[in-house]
Fold this sequence. Notes:
Shape: flat
Number of strands: 3
Amino acid sequence: MRLTAAIHREGTGNVARCLELDVVSQGDSIEDAKANLVEAIELLFQDPADWRDIDPSPAIVPIEVRIPGHLQATA
């Protein structure tokens, strides 16, 4: 199964989140965070009884946020 991971720096480490499953892991490097995320997802899918509540097809949509003092995007 091909899924999407978003990885960002947090403190002195990296946090990896699977966008479709809302599973999160971390690691010292991007590679470590990614490997740990894969392991966490594989553990999640070990028991087929746990799969029934998983819908790996999120709606990914753009959002606009107003931040005081910053230029706003124009459409």
